[in-house]
Write a structure and sequence with these properties.
Length: 121
């Protein structure tokens, strides 16, 4: 059985077998430098890095907006689950109190960006 993510990944691999096309975008120098720095850290080219990131984001958007249909019985069961969620556990409480990794990275990145900007290139 294919999950939605597997199906999109399968479709992406099929698309890769096609002839390459050119995608052009405009960016500010700071954006280009940020992308280049990240690509360099991963040992990737700017193009490979940008294409992978863009495809990953596109996949997430499509998965978040995928339509699914339920018959009356399935809808009733789904609504019942939403109306009566499971009881909270200690693990759930800890998870909800924890900072997300991307929140911590954003705070660290902002601090680093401010200090780099003052000593600047």
């Amino acid at each position: 059985m294919l999950t939605r993510r597997t199906q999109y990944t399968k479709d992406a691999h099929m698309a890769q077998a096609q002839e390459p096309v050119t995608i052009s975008i405009r960016a500010k120098a700071g954006q280009r430098d940020l992308i280049d720095q990240a690509a360099d850290r991963l040992g990737r080219s700017r193009s490979d890095f940008m294409l992978e990131a863009a495809c990953r984001q596109a996949e997430d958007v499509l998965l978040d907006q995928t339509y699914f249909a339920l018959d009356a019985k399935g809808l009733a069961a789904f609504q019942a689950m939403l109306d009566k969620p499971p009881a909270p556990t200690d693990r759930l409480r800890r998870t909800l109190k924890a900072r997300a990794p991307w929140d911590m990275a954003a705070t660290t990145g902002k601090a680093a960006g401010k200090s780099a900007g003052k000593g600047g290139k």
